[in-house]
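tmp note - Prephenate/arogenate dehydrogenase domain-containing protein
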Amino acid sequence: MKNNICTIGVVGYGRFGRLLVDILKKNPKLDVKVFSRHQKSRSGFTSLKKALENDLIIVAVPIRVFEKVIKNCSKKLPKDAIIMDVCSVKKFPIEIMKKYVSRANTIIGSHPLFGPGTFLNLNPKFGELSIALDFVRGERLKYIAVKNLFSKFGFKIIETNAKTHDENIVRSQFTAHIIAHLAHELDVAPNHLDTKSSQIFNSFLDIIQTDKQLLKDMYVYNPYSKVWLQNTKNAFQKITKYLET
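out:
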């Protein structure tokens, strides 16, 4: 396979999959094919076989079904293709790809550090957004081609590894989602007496868009989440004790 990327197959068309496809199609030189088991009969979608017959295959499915999808896709992957995930946890999906995907393929772990809520509420420029990348194994020139692909869109590339990513993301994204879900349970909402900081906080809640399943997935599949959740409980108890004494 040539090292420049001309064709991309996206497997999965959920909330993030739709956003990803919309972004990729902004480059008219890219041939983007999309497979979704929920959209098989609709125009604009293709078979799984055709979605996998591309230079780069991006698997955009929930992490709880990731192993099942990768196991199925690995049997149909052409030699030399690049396969990449977009999960918000890195250690688990990378281990799954290494387990099932041939050594003839290049494996890249990725985490776009934005989501549909970011675009819906902030309408950002690509230059304001980042994508974390982890070159797992395969041909480095193909990894560089993926870096260049997203750099040309304007995204900032953050090169990392699974351990560093998961340790840091539990402190940021996981914490942000916990706070958002607490606010949702408390029925926090804008009102006419909001301070400026409250307005910013409400904007943050709009961006997060609480998704209990996503929060659960981050907890189950990030190896550092259980300790961090206990740290969160301890911190809350410390604040509560201070207020009540």
